[in-house]
Amino acid sequence: MLPPPAAEEPMSTFAQVLARHYAEAPDRPAIHLQPAKGDDLTLTYSDLLRGAAGFAELLNRRGIGQGDVVVMILQHGEPLVYAFWGAILHGAVPAILPPLTEKLLPERYRRDLAALIQVTRPRAIVTYPEFACEVELAMRAAAVVAVPVAIAVDAVAPAAPDFAALGGLRREASDIVLLQHSSGSTGLQKGVALSHRAVLNQLNAYAPAIGLNESDVIVSWLPLYHDMGLIASFVLPVLRRVPLVLMSPFDWVRAPVRLMQAITKYRGTLTWLPNFAYNFCATRIRQRDLDGTDLSSLRAVINCSEPVYHSSHLAFLQKFAPYGLSPHALATCYAMAENTFAVAQSAIGEPIARNEGGGIGNAGQVSSGRPLPNVRIRVLSEDRRDLPDGAIGEIALHSDCMLSEYYHRPDATEQAFFDGFYLTGDLGYVLRGEVYVTGRKKDLIIVGGKNVYPQDLEQLASEVHGVHAGRVAAFGVFNEDAGTEDVVIVAEAESDDPAERERIAEAVRQHVTRNSDVAVRRVVMVGPRWLIKTSSGKVARSANKARYLAEIIGQQTA
Amino acid sequence: MSDDIKTTLSTYITTRILKQPGRVLKPDEKLISSGLIDSFHVVDLGLFVEDQFGVRLDDSELTAETFDTLDQLAALIDSRRQ
User: How many Cβ pairs closer than 8 A exist between chain A and B?
Assistant: First the structure.
């Protein structure tokens, strides 16, 4: 049985919920971890909380207090699972960050981490022994008075949790329970701080919206430094006693069929995917690898975190319907870390609404669902007046699961709210109660579910020798085959020699990729004064994107 | 033989993945660990290699350790075809 709703017996903090699972369902599987190689590892609630208690004990020994932020730089696996839930049991505040990837320069990673340490001021950073020296370099580079403790985990001895002694049970509902950082160097410095109450309110509203029940099994390859991975596919199942099958994003991207194999093996019922993953699975999985696949157990495949495209759903359905995927399993969700996770959700098992046209909004567009019952949505004009149904404006929201603040960033927190409503920065409209998201107020590229700030890329491109500094435009161009945006950089070259331009383009690609972890699809070198500037002298991204499409792409296809 | 393989691979990578047909890839140039080819396109490259050369690759081989340069790739393909 699932825990009864909050009204019957209030469960106001994470540790209370965990203590109850430990007492009532110690032998129930909590997480099936799928490593890159070898057998799956099933953790029961007893295993999970004993591992977590061992880690909580380690934090205690290292002098970490309740409310202290503990940063985790770990891949999917036992150490990350125990570290996260161990920090919760201890009453510390976990913040999971992306690990260093092979394409990112270590120096850049260190600089970003140092910047994060300066703002967030964590008390500890948990990582692997082999990565600890990288972390220590970043800690030294950060100008902070209290240098955090580097904790290198490989094996932590499990311990029986003594809930009476654990700091987690002394936390209040209004205390911060975790931080979520969005990606991008600008985003790293804004940690979304969520309270126990906010997260539990989100789960109480979201679980019924997706009909979550005791026979569900959630399957995920999503990273845990992103709200869709952390909340929908980690915190929700563990706190709601729904088994979770968890694999690493690095393993999934090399072999997307692993998702289908995991669903088949565990009779998975729910999975969340960014839009590009529908295309990726539809085109990169070989038919021969699908022998024996059975997706008939899936109640919902929920498209979230990128603009949703009907064509991506059709491609996915065409590929997997022969393996039992029901067309009614396709669903959509609109979510953001600042609202813990979901803002709106389409009805599970029913066709997703689409804009039928008739002059309002974009005909054919796919709805992101209806607002959750605890969320109020307004659509605001430029001068912040409420707009009627069907009119496009900035989406603002109010709920009982919003962020407490951007951690240690009162300036950013204040700017993010208007009249008690969180300003999402997303543009969209509401039609017949359905939320449609059309774009971003500010330029933002969303590629593969990851938010990319064009100004970061433009800055990097400007650093390359031969590029006219400041005369660079970065933008996203939707790629229908990939189901996501391609990153394009147009830069003015100081040379008009074609071979030299080719060399500069290559240098831009390398420099940007290695310093941003963003794969650049295309670098185009143009002559002086090609780029359009605004009256205030800034490079106008949308105007330059239009010019790129008309003149450079148009010429190629003509 | 191996040179043909490298030319075919190089053409595919520069035209289809990098979209820079004028780009010349050196046989020992790092492709994955340098960030030139991102993880999504590594899968494309793997599928292309299987289709083009009639060899089977294991998912675990799609990494920088086995797959990072044209030299490495061509050697891997050659060894599979024997």
Answer: 59
Q: Which of A102, A505, A510 sits opposite B32 (nearest CB)?
A: A102
Per-residue pLDDT tens digits for A56-102:
999 999 999 999 999 999 999 999 999 999 999 999 999 999 888 77
Closest CA to A472 of A494, A457, A453: A457
3-class DSSP string for A356-397: CCCCCCCCCCECCCEECCCEEEEEECCCCCECCCCCCEEEEE
Q: Measured between CB atoms, does B40 come within 8 Å of chain A? A: yes
Distance set, CA A291 to CA A27, A272, A287, B9 (Å): 33, 23, 7, 29
Give the residue among B28, B35, B33, B81 at the shortest CA–CA distance from A460: B35
The C-alpha atoms of residue A289 and residue B56 are separated, in whole angstroms, by 12
CATH topology of domain A45-171: Rossmann fold (3.40.50)
Element holding A191 (H helix, E strand): strand A191-195
The model's pTM: 0.90
| In chain A, where the domains are located | 45-171, 445-557
Q: What is the 3-state secondary structure (H, E, C) of A48-110?
A: HHHHHHHHHHHHHHCCCCCCCEEEECCCCCHHHHHHHHHHHHHCCEEEECCCCCCCCCHHHHH
**Distance (Å, rounded) from C-alpha A463 to C-alpha A472?**
11
**Does the structure show a pLDDT above 70 at A186?**
no
CA–CA gap between residue A343 and residue A215 (Å, rounded): 25
d(CA A337, CA A344): 13
Q: Choose the closest CB to A502 out of B23, B60, B63.
A: B23
Kindly list the structural domains of chain B, giving each domain's residue range(s) and its CATH number in brackets, ordered by start.
2-81 (1.10.1200.10)
- CATH number for A445-557: choose from 3.30.300.30, 2.40.110.10, 3.40.47.10, 3.40.30.10: 3.30.300.30
**Packed helices A78-90 and A45-61: angle between N→C axes, nearest 10 degrees:** 70
Interface check for B56 against chain A (CB to CB < 8 A): the answer is no
| Amino acid (1-letter code) at residue A100 | L
How far is A80 from A219, CA to CA, in rounded Å? Answer: 17
ipTM: 0.85
Q: Find the length of chain B.
A: 82
Q: Does A104 touch chain B (CB under 8 A)?
A: yes
CB A273 within 8 A of CB A301: yes
